[in-house]
Amino acid sequence: MKNITMIFALIAASLPAFSQLREPKVILVNESISTHFVSPEPIKYVDISTDDVAGDIPVNNIFRIKPKKSNPKLGIITIVGERYMVQYKLAYAPTAQAASEVRIDMAQVDEFLNPEVSMSLLDMKNFSLMALQRKPGKNALTTRSNKMTATVNNIYTIGDYFFLDLTLKNKTNIKYDIDQIRFKIQDKKQVKATNFQQLEIKPVHQLLTDASFKNKYRNVFVFKKFTFPDEKVFNIEISENQVSGRMISLKVDYNDVLNADTL
Asked: What are the tens digits of pLDDT across the range 102-159?
């Protein structure tokens, strides 16, 4: 709660200076039309300067507004994303002229340095696309099981994040439906089941959401930087979405993480 309060305080402090940077773009609205502001990254904060306009965030990158009555008292709306801030001036217009969709142009916004975000999802996506264009490294890690092949093509480090480039190959004629891809830090050797320790690490972002493939699957997973001792490994487990589904796992030593390249 303290961090959230600090972010809002920083936003509030930035508003006066921000309003002087550029004249807000005018958006025409009408009480019979919902206007949707579509952001290229998640929306973190919004403000409507008038009580005559209602608004909500139906999904994390869309801000929806609508006047409550005809000829309302209109003002300024402020939208803050992970790394930007933008304002729009509302103006009343006939239904035919009102905007139903406004796409936020990142070239027309001002940067907001959110202390809680060191890399935006948009940046993660762009870096992941760059990783996807690279060829697998010479020291790519590979394992095979059930006529399946799993390969860690590369591990990259950028700022506070790791980017893991993973490829799966299916050498059967049966389509592979992915149930889960799980990432765990666990003991290299299991002496006793009761002493076995593992910690699941969840990616903060993955480039593609495809869950089925016939021959080949490639994706990039983004993690907050992490460390683990030599007696443990970073284990990648892929399971199929069937009762008797095929499973394959791949273990990554910490030395492989330490050798992460840069994009």
From this structure: 999 877 777 666 666 778 888 899 999 999 999 888 888 999 998 999 999 999 999 9
- The answer to whether residues 53 and 17 touch, using CB atoms and an 8 Å cutoff, is no
Task: For the chain, give the percent of residues with pLDDT over 70.
Answer: 86
d(Cα 57, Cα 47) in Å, to the nearest integer?
Answer: 12
Q: How far apart are CA 144 and CA 162, in angstroms?
A: 24
Give the residue carrying structure tokens 């809680």. 116
What is the pLDDT, as a whole number, of residue 113?
Answer: 60
∠ CA 114-116-117, rounded to 5°: 70
Rounded CA separation 97/103 (Å):
17
Domain ranges within the chain, ordered by starting residue: 2-117, 124-258
CATH no. of 2-117? 2.60.40
For residue 41, count other CB atoms closer than 10 A to its CB.
20
60, 43 contact by CB (below 8 A): yes
Q: Quote the CA–CA distance of 215 and 17 in Å, as a whole number.
A: 54
Q: Which tokens in the block code for residue 74? A: 């209109």
pLDDT tens sequence across 161-211:
999 999 999 999 989 999 999 999 998 876 565 566 789 999 999 999 888
What CATH number labels 124-258? 2.60.40
Residues 6 or more apart in contact with residue 93 via CB below 8 angstroms = 28, 29, 30
Q: In whole angstroms, what is the distance from residue 228 CA to residue 184 CA? A: 11
pTM: 0.69
Strand bridging mode 205-206 / 216-224? antiparallel
Confirm whether 2-117 and 124-258 share one CATH topology: yes
